[in-house]
Amino acid sequence: MPSPSTVHRPISATIAAVIRDNQVLLVRRANPPDAGRWGFPGGKIDHGETLFEAATRELSEETGVSAEPLRVFTAVDAFDLGPAGTLRRHFILIAVLFRWTAGEPVGGDDALEARWVDLKALKGTSLALSLDVAEVAHEAAALMSEVPS
Q1: Which domains does the chain have, with CATH numbers?
Q2: CA dihedral (21, 22, 28, 32) positive or negative
Protein backbone atom coordinates (compact mmCIF):
# COMPACT_ATOMS: atom_id res chain seq x y z
CA MET A 1 0.00 0.00 0.00
CA PRO A 2 1.45 3.42 -0.92
CA SER A 3 2.24 5.87 1.85
CA PRO A 4 -0.18 8.82 2.20
CA SER A 5 2.45 11.17 0.76
CA THR A 6 2.57 9.21 -2.52
CA VAL A 7 -1.19 8.92 -3.01
CA HIS A 8 -2.39 11.44 -5.59
CA ARG A 9 -5.93 12.72 -5.25
CA PRO A 10 -7.90 15.30 -7.19
CA ILE A 11 -7.78 18.86 -5.85
CA SER A 12 -11.13 20.50 -5.19
CA ALA A 13 -11.61 24.01 -6.56
CA THR A 14 -14.47 26.32 -7.45
CA ILE A 15 -15.24 28.37 -10.53
CA ALA A 16 -17.55 31.39 -10.57
CA ALA A 17 -20.01 31.62 -13.48
CA VAL A 18 -21.29 35.20 -13.61
CA ILE A 19 -23.78 36.08 -16.34
CA ARG A 20 -24.82 39.69 -17.07
CA ASP A 21 -26.67 41.04 -20.14
CA ASN A 22 -25.95 37.96 -22.29
CA GLN A 23 -22.28 38.08 -21.36
CA VAL A 24 -20.11 35.85 -19.19
CA LEU A 25 -17.25 37.02 -16.99
CA LEU A 26 -13.96 35.34 -17.94
CA VAL A 27 -10.31 35.67 -16.89
CA ARG A 28 -7.09 34.85 -18.70
CA ARG A 29 -5.25 32.52 -16.36
CA ALA A 30 -1.67 33.22 -15.27
CA ASN A 31 -1.00 29.76 -13.76
CA PRO A 32 -1.51 26.10 -14.67
CA PRO A 33 -3.69 24.44 -15.48
CA ASP A 34 -4.40 26.32 -18.69
CA ALA A 35 -2.03 29.27 -18.17
CA GLY A 36 -2.75 31.87 -20.86
CA ARG A 37 -6.21 30.47 -21.64
CA TRP A 38 -9.54 32.09 -20.84
CA GLY A 39 -11.77 30.53 -18.23
CA PHE A 40 -13.88 31.27 -15.21
CA PRO A 41 -12.50 33.02 -12.14
CA GLY A 42 -11.78 30.39 -9.55
CA GLY A 43 -9.29 28.47 -7.49
CA LYS A 44 -8.64 26.03 -4.70
CA ILE A 45 -10.98 25.76 -1.75
CA ASP A 46 -9.31 26.62 1.55
CA HIS A 47 -9.66 24.32 4.56
CA GLY A 48 -12.98 25.08 6.32
CA GLU A 49 -14.25 27.25 3.48
CA THR A 50 -17.65 26.57 1.91
CA LEU A 51 -18.09 26.34 -1.86
CA PHE A 52 -19.88 29.70 -1.91
CA GLU A 53 -17.19 31.35 0.24
CA ALA A 54 -14.37 30.00 -1.95
CA ALA A 55 -16.03 30.99 -5.22
CA THR A 56 -16.93 34.47 -3.91
CA ARG A 57 -13.38 35.02 -2.62
CA GLU A 58 -11.78 33.90 -5.89
CA LEU A 59 -14.19 36.02 -7.93
CA SER A 60 -13.29 39.11 -5.90
CA GLU A 61 -9.53 38.42 -5.93
CA GLU A 62 -9.33 37.75 -9.66
CA THR A 63 -11.80 40.32 -11.02
CA GLY A 64 -12.83 42.84 -8.36
CA VAL A 65 -16.46 42.07 -9.26
CA SER A 66 -19.11 41.58 -6.56
CA ALA A 67 -21.82 38.99 -7.07
CA GLU A 68 -24.31 36.89 -5.16
CA PRO A 69 -23.80 33.09 -5.22
CA LEU A 70 -27.02 31.31 -6.17
CA ARG A 71 -26.30 27.60 -6.56
CA VAL A 72 -23.84 24.89 -7.53
CA PHE A 73 -24.77 23.64 -10.98
CA THR A 74 -22.06 21.39 -12.44
CA ALA A 75 -18.51 20.10 -12.05
CA VAL A 76 -15.76 19.53 -14.59
CA ASP A 77 -12.29 17.98 -14.62
CA ALA A 78 -9.16 20.03 -15.32
CA PHE A 79 -5.85 18.26 -15.87
CA ASP A 80 -2.45 19.93 -15.43
CA LEU A 81 -0.16 18.05 -17.79
CA GLY A 82 3.62 18.22 -17.85
CA PRO A 83 5.70 18.77 -21.02
CA ALA A 84 5.75 15.03 -21.73
CA GLY A 85 1.98 14.81 -21.29
CA THR A 86 2.20 13.25 -17.84
CA LEU A 87 -0.43 14.18 -15.30
CA ARG A 88 0.91 16.55 -12.65
CA ARG A 89 -2.37 17.54 -10.98
CA HIS A 90 -6.04 16.76 -11.41
CA PHE A 91 -8.56 19.41 -10.36
CA ILE A 92 -12.29 18.97 -9.84
CA LEU A 93 -13.82 22.37 -10.67
CA ILE A 94 -17.17 22.92 -8.97
CA ALA A 95 -19.19 25.58 -10.78
CA VAL A 96 -21.18 28.12 -8.78
CA LEU A 97 -23.76 30.31 -10.51
CA PHE A 98 -23.64 33.99 -9.51
CA ARG A 99 -25.86 37.02 -9.99
CA TRP A 100 -23.70 40.11 -10.71
CA THR A 101 -24.26 42.93 -8.20
CA ALA A 102 -21.47 45.49 -8.76
CA GLY A 103 -18.13 46.30 -10.30
CA GLU A 104 -16.37 46.05 -13.62
CA PRO A 105 -13.72 43.39 -14.13
CA VAL A 106 -10.04 44.11 -13.62
CA GLY A 107 -7.55 41.24 -13.69
CA GLY A 108 -5.98 40.60 -10.30
CA ASP A 109 -4.28 37.89 -8.23
CA ASP A 110 -3.49 35.09 -10.70
CA ALA A 111 -5.66 36.46 -13.53
CA LEU A 112 -3.75 38.30 -16.27
CA GLU A 113 -6.93 39.89 -17.62
CA ALA A 114 -10.65 39.86 -16.85
CA ARG A 115 -13.54 40.87 -19.09
CA TRP A 116 -17.12 40.29 -20.13
CA VAL A 117 -17.43 38.06 -23.22
CA ASP A 118 -20.58 37.85 -25.34
CA LEU A 119 -22.20 34.41 -24.94
CA LYS A 120 -23.06 34.20 -28.65
CA ALA A 121 -19.41 34.75 -29.59
CA LEU A 122 -18.04 31.96 -27.37
CA LYS A 123 -18.30 29.20 -29.98
CA GLY A 124 -16.56 31.18 -32.73
CA THR A 125 -14.23 33.30 -30.62
CA SER A 126 -10.55 33.68 -31.28
CA LEU A 127 -9.98 33.57 -27.52
CA ALA A 128 -8.11 30.47 -26.37
CA LEU A 129 -10.70 28.98 -24.04
CA SER A 130 -10.13 26.32 -21.42
CA LEU A 131 -11.93 23.02 -21.97
CA ASP A 132 -15.70 23.12 -21.35
CA VAL A 133 -15.88 26.93 -20.86
CA ALA A 134 -18.40 27.55 -23.64
CA GLU A 135 -20.63 24.66 -22.53
CA VAL A 136 -20.57 25.65 -18.85
CA ALA A 137 -21.22 29.32 -19.74
CA HIS A 138 -24.27 28.42 -21.82
CA GLU A 139 -25.55 26.13 -19.06
CA ALA A 140 -25.13 29.01 -16.56
CA ALA A 141 -26.96 31.40 -18.88
CA ALA A 142 -29.87 28.99 -19.27
CA LEU A 143 -30.11 28.70 -15.48
CA MET A 144 -29.94 32.50 -15.04
CA SER A 145 -32.87 32.91 -17.39
CA GLU A 146 -34.94 30.90 -14.88
CA VAL A 147 -33.86 32.96 -11.84
CA PRO A 148 -36.33 35.67 -10.77
CA SER A 149 -34.87 39.19 -11.00
Answers
A1: 8-144 (3.90.79.10)
A2: positive
The rounded distance, in Å, linking the Cα atoms of 36 and 43 is 15
Instruction: Report the C-alpha gap between 79 and 10 in whole angstroms.
Output: 9
What is the number of other CB atoms lying within 10 angstroms of the CB of residue 43?
A: 23
Q: What percent of the chain has pLDDT over 90?
A: 77
- Map 57-96 to HEC letters: HHHHHHHCCEEEEEEEEEEEEEEEECCCCCEEEEEEEEEE
Q: Is the pTM of this model over 0.85?
A: yes
- Using pLDDT thresholds of 50, 70 and 90, give the confidence band for residue 124: confident
Catalytic machinery residues: 113
